Amino acid sequence: MTALLAALGRLVLAALASVGRVALFALDAIGHMLRPPFYAREFGHAVMQIGWFSLPVVAMTAIFTGGALALQIYAGGSRFNAGAVVPQIVAIGMARELGPVLGGLMVAARVSSSIAAEIGTMKVTEQIDALVTLSTNPMKYLTVPRLLAATLTVPVLVAAGDSIGIMGGWLVGVTRLDFNSASYLKNTVDFLEFWDVGSGLVKGAVFGFIVALMGCYHGMNSARGAQGVGAATKAAVVSSSVLILAANYLLTEVFFSA
Q1: CB under 8 Å, gap of 24 or more: what pairs does 185-188 form?
Q2: What does residue 125 show for φ and ψ, rounded to 5 degrees?
Q3: Is the peptide bond before 155 cis (omega within 30 degrees of 0)?
Q4: Each residue of 172-227: pLDDT tens digit?
Q5: Crossing angle for the helix pair 226-256 and 194-220, nearest 10 degrees?
Q6: Fewest 10 Å CB contacts: which of 10, 51, 81, 171?
Q7: Residues 177 and 86 sit within 8 Å (Cβ to Cβ)
Q8: What pLDDT does 157 receive?
Q9: 3-state helix, strand, coil in the chain (%, to 5)
Q10: CA–CA separation, 236 vs 215, rounded Å?
Q11: Contact at 8 Å (CB) between 107 and 58?
């Protein structure tokens, strides 16, 4: 029993130490955001990589999710003669939950792994050491532009994903479920409130920060060699995905607990 408790204690201490290291890394990055210099070229490159090039995968995910959601709501609602609520539930489901969460997870799979692999490879090939030699702070040059770009662009991706997902529900509703197009769109617009969309955008900003933070953290702390870069990439995707789901619950509790 003593050995079991000791092993459990070591696991808890290791987990708390990891949380502390991530928190210190995040605070250090935020501190560097507030002080010059600012590398605009790296920021622009990160915006393209994180935002623009992630749009196709987010759009594809959103349109199929919206269509499947419409089918499921109609099938379930028909049991209680409530099939007419499809437009309203699709809209609120995409805006509040599915749009931000699925968009965040898709960006995590694509971007967090890419950031971790890129920075990890730079560490293995001693490019980060070269930056230090050239009096360039790696945190400012590599981490800050990616954190800012992800925090600003993921909400835009979420907004696009919400619109495309609602359009997917509309397409299925009109073509498969015999809804009137004008009535479907009117119910969608009348039912959505500002905070339904706003809460999703706030979630998108938080998820974007998490994605970039985990990618940069695991990349910067990658072990040497190809195996270390692979482990950092895997850890970045897993940790960012879990943190996105945890943050989603906490934010939902804060926004809608009343």
Answers
A1: 185/87, 187/87, 187/88, 188/87, 188/88, 188/90, 188/91
A2: -90, 10
A3: no
A4: 989 988 888 888 888 888 888 888 899 999 999 999 999 999 999 999 888 877 78
A5: 160
A6: 81
A7: yes
A8: 95
A9: 90, 0, 10
A10: 5
A11: yes
End-to-end CA distance of the chain: 44
Of 116, 120, 98, 119, residue with least CA distance to 108: 116
Structure letter (DSSP) for residue 85: G
Number of H helices and number of E strands within the chain?
A: 12, 0
DSSP 79: G
SS3 152: helix
The answer on pLDDT for 76 being more than 90 is: no
Written as six digits, the tokens of 203 are 């979630």
**For residue 33, which phi and psi values (nearest 5 degrees)?**
-65, -30
What is the Cα–Cα distance from 57 to 215, expressed in whole angstroms? 19
pTM for the structure as a whole: 0.91
Range 110-135 average pLDDT: 88
Q: What span, in angstroms and rounded, lies between the C-alpha atoms of 102 and 100? A: 6
Report the 3 state secondary structure along 159-215.
Answer: HHHHHHHHHHHHHHHHHCCCCCHHHHHHHHHHHCCHHHHHHHHHHHHHHHHHHHHHH
Q: Cα separations (Å) of 2 from 9, 12, 16, 101?
A: 10, 15, 21, 41
